[in-house]
Specification:
This protein is 35% helix and 24% strand. It is α/β, with parallel strands linked by helices. The strands form two sheets. The chain has a six-stranded mixed sheet, sandwiched between helices. Strands 2-1-4-5 form a four-stranded antiparallel sheet, with helices on one face.
Length: 263
């Protein structure tokens, strides 16, 4: 039996998400090996690092899509691994998540894809739903595309549609799993600008996983660097840009010489 106080955890007042000694393995593959980090409330945090270092795995722990083998994930004072199912569902309604490909339902048009969370999780009337969906599509530059099917949308449009759907429940936290994947540099910059503008306007917390250092540093307030399943550096954008750590300097400059190798 899990008691109420077991589901509450202390964390810094300024943080909305905290990870403590977080471990996760898949068979013999140890993906997370003691992650310690804090994500500030009301800011944009970028999670970066070489491929295969567990960035997406870490993100999925924030919403309980994965549970740790050891350690804890605390979201707004709640220990995610200790939540009951109904509590976890309530937490997820406060979090919007944009997956790499937008994760749209192929059998639904754009309007119904964006309306889906409202129909599933609220008692809003169809008139109210139409007002919300229309506003969110306008926010992401897709007004007038309501009847189009996912296979009629470009990659960038699918990502923006996924963002519109992530916004309809007015989430306090937005999670982006490589939103720039498959996009050219111009569309990556435009999508990052859209994320920044929406986050600033709403005052919510955003967490972005990306490999595009230039685009991310344009919008991020806080940066977490992962390597080998651990956090090797974290801090404000300015602190990371002037970090004395050799790994950090190599990663953000793309230098060939340094501790990071091809293997």
């Amino acid at each position: 039996m899990v008691l109420e106080h077991d589901r509450r955890r202390a964390q810094p007042e300024w943080a909305v998400i905290s990870c403590r000694a977080l471990h996760k393995a898949f068979g013999a593959n140890q993906v997370l090996a003691g992650v310690e980090c804090d994500i500030p409330r009301g800011r944009i945090t970028a999670i970066m690092g070489p491929s295969g270092t567990g960035k997406s795995v870490l993100l999925r722990h924030f919403v309980g899509l994965l549970l740790p083998d050891r350690g804890d994930v605390v979201v707004d004072g709640l220990s995610v691994p200790h939540l009951r199912e109904r509590e976890l569902l309530a937490l997820r309604r406060r979090i919007g998540m944009l997956f790499q490909d937008g994760a749209l339902f192929s059998s639904m048009n754009l309007y119904d894809n964006v309306a889906f969370p409202l129909r599933q999780h609220t008692r809003a009337s169809e008139r109210e739903i139409r007002e919300i969906v229309t506003a969110r599509l306008r926010d992401v530059g897709l007004a007038g595309a309501e009847e189009r099917m996912p296979n009629e949308l470009s990659g960038g449009m699918r990502k923006r549609a996924g963002l519109a759907r992530a916004l309809v429940l007015e989430p306090e936290i937005l999670l982006f799993d490589e939103p720039d994947s498959g996009l050219d540099p111009v569309r990556t910059a435009l999508l990052c600008e859209l994320i920044r503008n929406l986050q600033r306007r709403r005052g919510c917390t955003a967490v972005v996983i990306s490999h595009d250092i230039r685009a991310v540093f344009e919008i991020a307030d806080h940066v977490i660097l992962l390597h080998g399943g651990r956090v090797v550096d974290q801090g404000t954008k300015e602190q990371i840009q002037h970090s004395p750590l050799e790994f950090t300097r190599q990663f953000i400059t793309g230098a060939v010489i340094g501790p990071l190798h091809m293997d």
